Amino acid sequence: MRESLISFxxxxxxxPALVLWPLVGAALVWLIGRDxxxxxxxxxxPADALGGGGPxxxxxxxxxxxxxxxxxxxxxxxxxxxxxxxxxxxxxPWLPDLGARLSLAVDGISLPMLVLxxxxxxxxxxxxxxxxxxxLSSFGALxxxxxxxxxxxxxxxxxxxxxxxxxLMLIPMYFIIGIWGTEHRTRAAIKYxxxxxxxxxxMLAAIAVLYVQAGATSFHLDDLLxxxxxxxxxxxxxxAFFLAFxxxxxxxxxxxxxxDAQFEAPVIGAVVLGLKVGTYAILRxxxxxxxxAAMHDTVRTVVLALSVIAIVYGALVAIxxxxxRRVLSYSSISHLGFIMLGAFAxxxxxxxxxxxxxxxxxxxxxxxxxxxxxxxxRGGSDRLDAFGGLARVMPLFAVALILSMLSTIGLPGTNxxxxxxxxxxxxxxxxxxxxxxATSGVVFASVYAxxxxxxxxxxxxxxxxxxxxxxxxxxxxxxxxxxxVAMLWLGIAPQSVLRRxxxxxxxxxxxxxxxxxxxxxxxxxxxxxNTSLTIGAVTP
Amino acid sequence: MASLQTASGHPxxxxxxxxxxxxxxxxxxxxxxxGALVLWPRLVGAPDASLETREAEVQRRLTxxxxxxxxxxxxxxxxxxxxxxxxxATMRGADALTEPFIRSYGSWMPAGSLTxxxxxxxxxxxxxxxxxxxxxxxLIHVFSTGYMAADAGYARYFAYLNLFVAMMxxxxxxxxxxxxxxxxxxxxxxxxxxxGFWFSExxxxxxxxxxxxxxxxxxxGLLVAMFLLFSTTxxxxxxxxxxxxxxxxPAVLTAVALFLFLGCTGKSAQLPLYIWLPDAMAGPTxxxxxxxxATMVTAGVYLVARAAPIFAxxxxxxxxxxxxxxxxxxxxATIALRQWDIKKVLAYSTVSQLGYMFxxxxxxxxxxxxxxxxxxxxxxxxxxxxxxxVIHAMHGAYHHAHDHTSDPQDLRNMGGLSRWMPxxxxxxxxxxxxxxGVPPLAGFFSKDEILASTFARAHGSPLAExxxxxxxxxxxxxxxYAIGLVTALLTxxxxxxxxxxxxxxxxxxxxxxxxxLHEAPSVMTAPILVLALLTLIGGWLNLPAILPLGPAHLLGxxxxxxxxxxxxxxxGEAHLDHGTExxxxxxxxxxAAVGIVIAFLRYRSPVRTASESAPELxxxxxxxxxxxxxxxxxxxxxxxxxxxxxxxxxxGLDQRLDRAFVSGGQALARAAGYAHxxxxxxxxxxxxxxxxxxxxxxxxxxxxx
Lengths: 540, 705
Description:
The complex is a heterodimer.
Chain A: H1 2-7, H2 14-32, H3 57-78, E1 87-95, E2 100-106, H4 110-127, H5 136-155, H6 159-180, H7 185-213, H8 221-225, H9 231-248, H10 257-264, H11 267-273, H12 277-289, H13 291-294, H14 297-319, H15 324-345, H16 348-379, H17 390-393, H18 395-408, H19 415-430, H20 432-439, H21 441-457, H22 463-466, H23 474-492, H24 495-513, H25 518-522, H26 525-529
Antiparallel strand pairs in A: 1-2
Chain B: H1 2-8, H2 22-43, H3 51-93, E1 101-107, E2 117-122, H4 124-147, H5 154-173, H6 177-195, H7 202-233, H8 238-245, H9 250-267, H10 276-279, H11 285-294, H12 299-306, H13 308-312, H14 315-337, H15 342-362, H16 366-400, H17 422-436, H18 442-457, H19 462-465, E3 467-468, E4 471-472, H20 473-503, H21 511-514, H22 522-537, H23 554-571, H24 578-602, H25 618-624, H26 629-671, H27 684-703
Antiparallel strand pairs in B: 1-2, 3-4
């Protein structure tokens, strides 16, 4: 498989294609995509009843996303799990005056995120097919631009390029919330933009400082990694990067924009907001660029403490939320704590677990948001107290919701368990007390998850109001089946993902922990092979 | 791991034992088939029709597949039981089975030095558990085909029940803590689904939720124990971790043992986490028999026996287990005395008997604890199935009389049922005598062995030398023994009371209903009679050497390779001389006899029916309400936590934080001289463009040299 892909020369064009194809698609959809008239969306109208010429915008968007997903799977296949360093690397000149380059590559940490994103987008669109009905060509174009930004964030090695992709995510998302959102959309959208923008400006300043430090010749991560920055400036720079990423990933106490944004956004927007780009960026940039700051006692203590607080706080607040989507948002805030904890505990298990949760969260929480959207589509709301006994009316929906919730609370056998277990078992080796407190999250998680199930699915059915709600069908049933298979597959056989991230995680720990050998010994396999490597393979 | 075993050569290599993977897979397949039968009819059908029409259509389609469910549900259990018997014969035939037979079926969670395989382990302990699970499980599946025959959720029921057995087998066959944990939480899930099986009744679903959450508190302990084990020994495999713990410090051993035991108190309903089990009776009665009496709730006992090398190294924790077991046994037995609901009596009785098992494994008499687990599986499953037959009959009778207010589970509404249900009544009397401790029934031998070993270890054992909170182990163990005797007395009383109220005296069901009372169909009585037979002869599994009834200590010898060494560690020099042992047996028998006599004297007088009875007052009411622990917890923990989350964290902290950010953002925007009242106005486009252009300008400012 890998050999045949390589023989096509995919390594020279695959990543640029992954970034550019959605942009091309966005232009296509915007220019030639045809909006459906805002008539009853469910009825299949004859072709001549539809306004204008050209292909249907929604179908066109889906086609572009499907091609993108196929490209993502090719990257998965072309990746060599055992090799260290960057793969599928492409390096083209971009702004020669500045030394900025179009430098793209993946490693075992970015690859799973990339494939998750490209696979998720068409599924999310399919499951929310009838939920957005107006200005479809603009919507499709923005969604595709957003996809390009997401992919760019995961594959960019050049920090200027990364920054561009980072902002490219922000703007379309702002419009998606602001135009297609619900009642209080504007407020939610502006809150989201102001907070995120505040963070990214800090990051931009820090990037500029790094650039100057490196002799103002390159924005390339590998070059910046070679810098030897004294501790004091490292702390400032780390702070700027960390704040940007912490806001983006909604770490307590910078989390309050998330529940509102995910509530007001159209469901597909909420799904994208659930993707863990912020924590990815921490693993990719903040930790390896500023190892001394990341290992600094105070910094470490603060971040680890915030992570554990997020776990417990998010779960406790999720217990009292009135709507399914807000439960999910606060559950995400709790999960984010696990990801941060694993990332900063910096042991082989905790880092791999952390990346695993990012992937799992993308799958499980997306499935749950899509289910919330389906509920809203059929029942007009996703308030927990508005329903009851839906298991009788919509058994397939109930199965999907129960399975996804079980995955959220980390039932062994589902994907949710693998990540959480690895984070906790790895963290315990470095920070036993924090790990124990964090483990209490599993109890609170079961409380909020089962509460939601209880309210929605069980107790007596109001047949008069909900008796005619239709169960999952067609498109949505197919999408949920894919999610269910993914949750069980990654729960039972996660080694295909774990194996791919093992080398990169080991290299990251090595880079950040540097001289500390206490954990290297214990970790045998993964790290010892790579002890001579820094994060980028190119570095001699 | 597996390759190591193969290299050294295991006596079971290449035998039927290679098929051990089929054991959990068979019921899992059953669950999938039954699950498909439930969901398949939903995939096709008119979506626009009303709920009633749709449900009628689904039922019509399900009727066709009913026979398939009846065949597959119990069928996979029969196959698994047959395979288990074959494996047992193979193991009996092999010599020198000192090491477990381990097979790995692939890597599960590899990360750095952590390697967790999907690995199964066949040894004497997992074999025994498998026989009980599949054997008793098969009988209960057969019973269920009768009990659930009229239920609309017939296939769904068997899907859950099969899933439960699959997970229970994973629990006992897993070769490392992580795989065991899959089964551990998997049975919890099945239990959750089955307690809330009739989910349209809010209380049933609530009971399932409570069970799951309380169990999760225990699972928290189990998780932490696993983290400790891994950070100490570098592995979660039973063999490797237990070997590694042999050189661990006493503090680590104690911590691991404590956290493991916290897990056990959840799953096995011991103080303080017992609160979910009485509520779990909301599930169908065969579920109570299988999950909440015979198998799942004994998982904690299994775990202590499985981790015996760890507990043997932590005598203080072992003492604590014995003490908690004893206190739980007494506590639950007193509550059982005052229950009117036939299933509640049995539920508290189960909590109490689990306490005995923990006394056994806590005092290091691992074989005795497991022995009681097995005999209890026989007689308590029998009692629950018998209660199921009674409820089935009562329910049918009230249904016949169109009486929808009377409670078919209330003992006060029964009376004289043996007239209609002689088989059920007879079998339940056998089980009652067994649980009361009347020789030579199964319960007598297993309970006696636990009490005798407790008495023996109160002197000359490391447990007696150890101390807990300043009290000497010796004193504690004598106390545990005394509590065990008192509990035995109470057990005899409450069980005899149940039997007298249900089966003797005048009938209180009411005239129109009583004429519809009937014995259960043979598909239900047959499993009950088989269990009665097992209850009669189960004691021969592990006779004491002192009584010349047959070969002694069969089960103890069978478990010797697994728990023998640990048993000897905790037993130390402790022993009983001939005379003392005979005396202890005498005391135990006397206690049982006294209890039965007291019950006959006390409960011979007629009682009023449930509707005529005045509510109890004072101490009686307090005991009847299970000491109002639930209400207290609700007031002290559940509601304050909810209020704290809602008012302090969410409405207080979270929303205030949010407002702070918004006003901060507004101030920032004003400072920038723009958008000073754009917030909330909806001029989305312009704002975004300004931001975009601003960002690009900043970018340019930084990058132009």
